[in-house]
């Protein structure tokens, strides 16, 4: 399944900031250390040179990816007409059958972060939530079986 090209405004700025940091700060610094290591002579046994070249390849790969990806992404801002229903960018509080309560934010695949409770809009839970309202129930197939959740709240901005 292809990942969606949606991203929150904050997510887009974070990727853009990473790209600028890699290109304007990290790459010039690593390039300088590689040229200094190369000036020391034998490159075949020079760990600084070998590591630096490897790091430059990693930076260049990430810069190419971010440049291309930022061009493809579509920033989605919350719309007042979305209030009361679950759409991209929403913070959704769910309760499962065992009365466990969890809050998730639906974000783009480029910015999902389990530690922040941000889930990808492409995930099964997010797909089941789209268009639903408070008090609706959703069923999600998980590796451990089907889980039913009840939607307790939907917010687009955290207070």
TrEMBL record:
SUPFAM superfamilies: FKBP-like, GreA transcript cleavage protein, N-terminal domain. Residues 82-156 form the Transcription elongation factor GreA/GreB C-terminal domain. The keyword Transcription applies. GO terms for biological process: DNA-templated transcription elongation; regulation of DNA-templated transcription elongation. Keywords: DNA-binding, Elongation factor, Protein biosynthesis, Transcription, Transcription regulation. It comes from the Bacteria. Residues 5-75 form the Transcription elongation factor GreA/GreB N-terminal domain. PROSITE patterns: GREAB_1 (PS00829), GREAB_2 (PS00830). InterPro entries: GreA/GreB_C_sf, TF_GreA/GreB_CS, Tscrpt_elong_fac_GreA/B, Tscrpt_elong_fac_GreA/B_C, Tscrpt_elong_fac_GreA/B_fam, Tscrpt_elong_fac_GreA/B_N, Tscrpt_elong_fac_GreA/B_N_sf, Tscrpt_elong_fac_GreB. The keyword Transcription regulation applies. One of its GO terms (molecular function) is DNA binding. Necessary for efficient RNA polymerase transcription elongation past template-encoded arresting sites. The arresting sites in DNA have the property of trapping a certain fraction of elongating RNA polymerases that pass through, resulting in locked ternary complexes. Cleavage of the nascent transcript by cleavage factors such as GreA or GreB allows the resumption of elongation from the new 3'terminus. GreB releases sequences of up to 9 nucleotides in length. NCBIfam families: greB, PRK00226.1-4, PRK01885.1. Belongs to the GreA/GreB family. GreB subfamily. PANTHER family: TRANSCRIPTION ELONGATION FACTOR GREA, TRANSCRIPTION ELONGATION FACTOR GREB. This is Transcription elongation factor GreB. It comes from Proteus myxofaciens ATCC 19692. The lineage of its organism: Bacteria, Pseudomonadati, Pseudomonadota, Gammaproteobacteria, Enterobacterales.
């Amino acid at each position: 399944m292809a990942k969606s090209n949606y991203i929150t405004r904050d997510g887009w700025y974070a990727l853009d900031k990473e790209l600028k940091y890699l290109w304007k700060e990290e790459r010039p610094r690593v390039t300088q250390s590689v040229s200094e290591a190369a000036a020391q002579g034998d490159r075949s046994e020079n760990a600084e040179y070998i590591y630096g070249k490897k790091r430059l390849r990693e930076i260049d790969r990430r810069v190419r990816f971010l440049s291309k990806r930022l061009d493809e992404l579509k920033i989605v801002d919350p719309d007042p007409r979305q209030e009361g229903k679950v759409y991209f960018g929403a913070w959704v509080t769910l309760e499962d059958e065992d009365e466990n309560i969890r809050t998730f934010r639906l974000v783009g695949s480029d910015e999902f972060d389990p530690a922040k409770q941000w889930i990808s809009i492409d995930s099964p839970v997010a797909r089941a939530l789209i268009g639903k309202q408070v008090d609706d129930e959703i069923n999600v197939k998980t590796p451990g079986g089907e889980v039913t959740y009840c939607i307790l709240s939907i917010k687009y901005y955290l207070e």
